[in-house]
Amino acid sequence: MFDRMKYPPWGVHGSKEGQPGRITVVKKTGEPEIIYKSKGYPLSPGDSIIVETGGGGGYGPPSERARQLIERDVRRGLISAGAAAKDYGLRIESTPCARSTA
């Protein structure tokens, strides 16, 4: 799962890259450090580990995605309103609901 930490998954047909995975060690002092799978890293009592898995790259230009599909994804909680603004340039209110198949 962490093969794409340094180089994010690529998008195709004009899309954006996916988000890479990341492992962060938060020292008991509160100082965070991002580490990589190939690095041996000693942990101390009181340290915390945050593991974030990456996502895949997209398909096609984000600007061509239909507004109603983006709004549907926000309602379903698949993307946040912030992601809709950042990734699609679409500012909408976040009103997530339970996931449905419609």
Task: Describe the fold and architecture.
A 3-stranded antiparallel beta sheet has the order 2-1-3, with no helix packed on it. By secondary structure, the protein is α+β, with helices and mostly antiparallel strands. The protein has 2 domains: 1-60, no CATH class; 61-102, no CATH class. Mean pLDDT is 83; it is low at 98-102. The longest helix is centred in the C-terminal third of the chain and has 9 residues, at 67-75. It contains 2 helices and 3 strands.
Provide a compact summary of the structure.
The protein has 102 residues and is α+β, with helices and mostly antiparallel strands.
Task: Set out the fold topology.
Elements: E1 22-26, E2 32-35, E3 48-52, H1 67-75, H2 81-88
Antiparallel strand pairs: 1-2, 1-3
Rounded to the nearest angstrom, the distance between the terminal CA atoms is 31 Å
- The tally of strands reads 3
Oligomer: single chain
Q: Measured on Cα atoms, how large is the radius of gyration?
A: 17 Å
**How would you characterize the largest beta sheet?**
3 strands, antiparallel
SSE sequence, one letter per element: EEEHH
- Count helical runs: 2
How many domains is the backbone divided into? 2
Sheet-strand content, in percent, reads: 5-15%
Could you estimate the helical fraction of the residues in percent?
Answer: 10-25%
Inertia-based shape: elongated
Strand order of the largest sheet: 2-1-3
* Class inferred from helices and paired strands: alpha+beta
* Overall pLDDT score: 83
Q: What low-confidence regions span 5 or more consecutive residues with pLDDT below 50?
A: 98-102
